[in-house]
Specification:
The chain is an alpha+beta fold. It has a single domain, classed as Alpha-Beta Complex (Creatine Amidinohydrolase). Helices cover 27% and strands 24% of the residues. It has 4 helices and 16 strands. The strands form 4 sheets. Strands 8-7-9-14-15-16 form a 6-stranded antiparallel β-sheet. Strand 4 and strand 5 form a beta hairpin. Helix 1 crosses helix 2 and helix 3 runs antiparallel to helix 4. The longest helix is centred in the N-terminal third of the chain and has 24 residues. The radius of gyration is 17 Å and the shape is globular. The termini are far apart.
Length: 259
């Protein structure tokens, strides 16, 4: 069942989203060559605690970390540990927090030190596809309008969209209806309504689209072991411009992407 949020719930989600974004930005600034993924996770945990929130991830279906930290060929759901970040790595950092009973969920991908033009393009195209998808999150459109905008932009740039993992509704629970694929699957597509809150999160591979889950039961990697990028925002569907709850700005404040 797809739920819309009332004004009180939306305001609570704005607060959760703002905190989630603050943690994401502070923690991404901490990432540099020489730190471990465990140190990154601990930094994020301390930030979450300082803001009076809780991690939405740790303990969720048994997940053992406060954040998801996925490096290079890891697509999503990377577990913090002893892995050392090296110069040129790209790191997907996914942060979800619970505040006031509601969840803010967002992610970005950053390079440690620097990266090749090819990898920078991967990150730029993935981020641009996110904003193209967000632009379609308007009441009266369908979920497939979001999916199509993302897929077309990614594939027109010669990259691949991950199929097995998708965006989702979010609110009091981490995963609510509807699912938000980053590709058009040809099936029935729910109509978007004002008051829906959804997490849009393209996962894009430099190589082929196929992925697999490692033996830890969580970490998703590309089958060809080529790099992957991931960006995400929690978005409020409105009758006009979508509102990005994980940066507390309207869509119109984001410059148009050229890629």
């Amino acid at each position: 069942m797809i739920r819309t949020k009332n004004e009180k719930e939306i305001e609570a989600m704005r607060l959760a989203g703002t905190l989630a974004n603050q943690v994401l930005l502070e923690t991404s600034g901490f990432i540099e060559p020489g730190v471990t993924t465990q140190q990154i996770d601990e930094f994020a945990a301390a930030c979450i605690d300082r803001l009076g929130a809780k991690s939405a991830f740790i303990g969720y279906r048994g997940f053992p970390s406060h954040t998801c930290i996925s490096v290079n060929e890891q697509v999503v759901h990377g577990i913090a540990g002893s892995r050392l970040i090296e110069f040129g790595d790209i790191i997907s950092l996914d942060v979800g927090v619970v505040y006031g009973g509601f969840i803010g969920d967002n992610a970005l991908t950053v390079a440690a030190g620097s990266c090749s033009l090819e990898i920078q393009t991967l990150m730029d195209v993935t981020e641009a596809s996110l904003y193209r998808g967000i632009a379609k999150a308007v009441a009266g459109n369908r979920v497939s309008d979001i999916s199509r905008a993302i897929q077309q932009h990614v594939e027109s740039n010669g990259l691949s969209v991950v199929r097995e993992f998708v965006g989702h509704g979010v609110g009091r629970k981490m995963h609510e209806e509807p699912q938000i694929p980053n590709y058009v699957d040809g099936g029935p597509s729910p109509r978007l309504k004002a008051g829906m809150t959804i997490a849009i999160e393209p996962m894009v591979n430099l190589g082929a689209a196929q992925v697999q889950v490692l033996e830890d039961g969580w970490t998703v990697v590309t089958r060809d072991r080529k790099p992957s990028a991931h960006f995400e925002h929690t978005v409020l569907v409105t009758d006009g411009e979508p509102e990005i709850l994980t940066c507390a700005t309207r869509m119109g404040s984001k410059p148009a992407e050229s890629l």
